[in-house]
Write a structure and sequence with these properties.
binds pyridoxal-5'-phosphate; three-stranded antiparallel beta sheet; globular; alpha/beta; single chain; seven-stranded mixed beta sheet; 374 residues
């Protein structure tokens, strides 16, 4: 049976170019980038090149890039590194890497979003307190794809003298990102969402932004992230960044996403696009099918060869419905009736058409089985 992958927001495959860039780091270039001998300097050269490639993706300078073990660690370093015993302001739709981290700050205020999933910059302004140290608002949401007004919030943070972090894990590689145009002080990215390896990410730290390290040990990464550098991972992230900068694929993915949504709306009664009307990343579609349990639909689609998600990968398996969907005003039942499709490089028009047919078939069957809906 052919299998089709529509879960690129959960993770992406490593691209062939990334793999071949990484392989020599496992065999020939194995030095410790901190060693001053030839082997160490070979590794250091590779690490420096990767830092330049990641900086280029974000419009930053190489000195502003701190390699981490992924998006989660970048978010932890940003939020708690900047919180400095003060208050964190964040939103109700953040990824758990920011939500759970904020709970460890001295205090936290959660700003809610509208029915599309967009935060009002004025609500952020109103939440400011004398002890607010950091504002953290994600650039694009992992479940809805909804893009936040980051540049406007950055202005508010700057006026207030507060550090501004944005979790860009689901934005980088999908929409153009320039940290200077956005005005962010801190920006997180992750390798495995952009066809790079898992277990590597980066935090952009604007020159002059003072944050404290969360990891103690050696003086690596300008004292912000102790530990022998994962040079192979950094090289993979760098290569992925370079590749995606040359080809964002946005227009192509938006066409496929629109075809998918239109096809579903045409063929499936009582289907609704969550986050509709908001600016969204081109690859993400979150659809509510009234009367259908999303886990049952996910399993039915998996049996037909289609991989989709019911909520974020990190929260599936949990019994609670998605906090993002309830934050935009969906009832628990509605949230449990929603499925996320996230497209990527490998998807074609034929796959999308086959997915539409499979969704229509399964939704009809599951609704017949649901007495309450019938
Ligand atoms: C918005 C967002 N932030 C952070 C993360 C965590 O990144 P990582 O898996 O690299 O730790 C994810 C992963 O799903 C994400 O979607």
């Amino acid at each position: 049976m052919e299998r089709y992958y529509f879960d690129h927001n959960a993770t992406t495959p490593v691209s062939p170019e990334v793999l071949s860039a990484m392989l020599p780091l496992m065999t020939e270039v194995y030095g410790n980038a901190s060693s001053i001998h030839f082997f160490g300097q070979m590794a250091k050269t590779k690490l420096d090149e990767a830092r330049r490639q990641v900086a280029a993706l974000l419009g930053a300078t190489p000195e502003e890039i701190v390699f981490t073990s992924g998006g989660t660690e970048a978010d932890n370093l940003a939020v708690l590194g900047a919180a400095d015993g003060g208050q964190v302001i964040t939103t109700t739709i953040e990824h758990s890497a920011v939500l759970a981290t904020s709970a460890h700050a001295a205090s936290v205020r959660f700003v809610s979003v509208d029915g599309r999933g967009v935060v009002d910059p004025d609500a952020i302004r109103r939440a400011l307190q004398p002890d607010t140290k950091v504002i953290s608002v994600m650039h694009a949401n992992n479940e809805l794809g909804v893009i936040q007004p980051i540049a406007e919030i950055a202005k508010i943070a700057k006026e207030a003298g507060v550090i501004f972090h944005s979790d860009g894990v689901q934005a980088a590689g999908k929409i153009p990102v320039n940290v200077n145009a956005l005005g962010v002080d801190l920006y997180s990215i992750s390798g495995h969402k952009i066809y790079g390896p898992k277990g590597v990410g980066a935090l952009y730290v604007r020159k002059g932004t003072r944050i404290a390290s969360r990891m103690f040990g050696g003086h690596h990464e300008r004292d912000l992230r102790a530990g022998t550098e994962n040079v192979a991972g950094a090289v993979g992230l760098g290569q992925a960044a370079q590749q995606i900068l040359g080809d964002l694929e946005g227009a192509h993915l938006a066409e496929l996403r629109d075809r998918l949504e239109q096809g579903i709306l045409d063929r499936v009664p009582s289907a609704h696009i969550n986050g509709a009307g908001a600016p969204r990343t081109p690859n993400t579609s979150n659809v509510r099918f009234d009367g259908v349990d999303s886990e049952s639909l996910l399993i039915a689609l998996d049996l037909d060869g289609f991989a989709v998600s019911s909520g974020s990968a990190c929260s599936s398996g949990a019994t609670e419905p998605s906090h993002v969907l309830t934050a935009i005003g969906l009832s628990k039942l509605q949230a449990r009736s929603s499925v996320r499709f996230s497209l990527g490089r490998s998807n074609t028009v034929q796959q999308v058409d086959a997915l539409i047919a499979a969704v229509a078939k399964s939704v009809e069957r599951l609704r017949k089985l649901a007495p309450a809906y019938a």
